[in-house]
Amino acid sequence: MSGEANNAAGEMNLVVVGAGGRMGQALIRAIQAIDGARLAGAIEREGSPHLGRDAGEIAGLGALGITITDDPLPVFAKAHGVLDFTSPGASVYFAGLAAQARIVHVIGTTGCSPEDEAQIRAAARHAVIVKSGNMSLGVNLLSVLVEKAAKALGPEDFDIEILEMHHKHKVDAPSGTALLLGEAAARGRNINLSEHSVRVRDGYTGPREDGTIGFATLRGGSVIGDHSVILAGTGETITLSHQAQDRAIFARGAVKAALWAHGRKPGLYSMRDVLGLDS
Ligand SMILES: NC(=O)C1=CN([C@@H]2O[C@H](COP(=O)(O)OP(=O)(O)OC[C@H]3O[C@@H](n4cnc5c(N)ncnc54)[C@H](OP(=O)(O)O)[C@@H]3O)[C@@H](O)[C@H]2O)C=CC1
Ligand SMILES: O=C(O)C1=N[C@H](C(=O)O)C[C@H](O)C1
Description:
Bound molecules: NADPH dihydro-nicotinamide-adenine-dinucleotide phosphate, the ligand O=C(O)C1=N[C@H](C(=O)O)C[C@H](O)C1
Oligomer: single chain
Order of helices and strands: EHEHEHEHEHEHEHHEEEEHEH
Strand order of the largest sheet: 3-2-1-4-5-6-12
Radius of gyration: 20 Å
């Protein structure tokens, strides 16, 4: 349905997968609040306690007439796009279904393995996919600033460390955002992140190796998402940071990404593409 025009009311029909989750509920609220978007379906996994409930009710909006189901095929067939903040295995599965249905797939899921990423790239040969470890305007702008700072402050003078803290339920580390910011720093330095990152330090580590990008992870309480990129020189330190105060920032970004992607040619796009931050 992706190539087709919007629905009779001129809106884009969107499906939320993982509708009962923290982000699923925020996405339902964002769709209701944004002109041009309409909630057309809500999916949860087989056996979920949310099945059969109204999507609006679980998001605190009152009934919207959309029942949560575990059968994505008929729902995707009537949609223009899918918003997906679930788990890596589920996102790979939904990427295949969205590609078959030729609908837009917005993926916020983090913690994907290189194999998962390869399967998502393959699906993007047929579908328009927007994927980002962070859908907020603030973090994507921060990534541009980090890239510039890393380019201006070379590895002989400044060490780069990335610190993140999230709520105690988060299952992947480092966060998708920390990796996105690490990629931005690596791009600024013209290096490959996977060859220069230090993801864990423990015990007698020896001195820091010049040119590496270090990651540190904190977990606790209900923290939505705090990130700092620290550029540490001799005698001075620069810290570029972002604190998320409401999951609505990610949900609004995801709906904006779907509206932007509708009607574009197949490919894998980033939030920097959506927000025009590279032009
Ligand atoms: N890119 C961004 O801007 C952001 C990304 N995220 C990422 O989004 C993901 C979800 O985060 P969050 O909402 O906090 O997590 P939650 O665990 O609250 O929500 C995930 C939801 O997806 C459901 N789910 C899992 N597998 C399937 C499946 N196969 N079919 C249907 N539903 C499924 C889960 O069901 P069940 O509970 O039964 O397993 C759950 O309801 C994480 O990877 C997180 O890092 C989060 C915020 C912002
Ligand atoms: O799991 C979360 O909650 C979040 N995940 C994303 C990440 O891994 O960076 C984005 C945000 O920080 C919240």
